[in-house]
TrEMBL record:
The lineage of its organism: Bacteria, Bacillati, Bacillota, Bacilli, Bacillales. It holds the Pfam family Lactamase_B. Gene3D superfamilies: Ribonuclease Z/Hydroxyacylglutathione hydrolase-like. Residues 17-205 form the Metallo-beta-lactamase domain. It comes from Rossellomorea vietnamensis. This is Metallo-beta-lactamase domain-containing protein.
Amino acid sequence: MKLQKFTEQCFAFTGAVTIGYCVKEGKGLLIDTGLDDSAMKKVKRILVEEGLPLDYCVITHAHADHFGGAHYLKSKHDIPLFALKLEKAIIENSVLEPIYLFNGAVPINELRNKFLEGQAVEVDGELFTGENTIGPFTFDVIDLPGHSHSQAGLLIDDILYAADSYFGSETLKKHVIPFIVDADQTLESLEKLLHISCKGAIPGHGRFEENFTGTVKENIELHEERMKSLLAVVNTSPNGKTIDHIMREYLDLHTITVSNVGQWLLFRTSVTAYLTSLERKKLLSFFIQNNELIIKPC
Ligand SMILES: [Zn+2]
């Protein structure tokens, strides 16, 4: 983890996950917290070494790698937390992530780990789309749903902290099928990013770029290809297939070998999101046959 400076006000701790940081008039604002206590201890140590303050924390979305350290930050350093309404509800009731991944049922123990269930914590303030003020900081909250239901991007001092609305090229290649909950919203958010002019942007996973258009376009192309190859899997069987069958063929097609239940469920959410988008376009339909949920081309 290292502290990178973009402007007089804007910085980020870079590494596996981006933790944004802004300073103004002697106050410090953190954007996301990393996965756990140890990420926050490292951030705190670097800030103390650099003589930089920490007073507030904004959380972009309720995924454990972005808010898992928030409980530590609040309980040990009394830092108030801010998030958009729906993400706030999940951060405060973090068991909801393994619950939704497990079809709404009480999740099996294997899913109750720090990667899927960050430590729950009370969020102090709600953010709103548009201009927000916290202490001396004034920033724009940009709605960027699709990767999560109510993800926020932050535009502050002309730097965009884009959360997981797009991924850096290396991360995109590593994930193969990125996590999404809504394919249409994901594409709309990516399109929105193409029209934001600012000094530069940093995603939740990836590096800072002054011109991030090319990387955003790579994300758009990847989702379009993933959707097209999924429809091709569905189309090979006019009578339809179960989602498990589609999952197996689709993962094989992308040479993915899943190693645990959590990872499979994350992929299933993305596949379901793509299928839902294709259903909206009337390219396939869902129905029940012989007590099985079948997806068939239209
Ligand atoms: Zn995320």
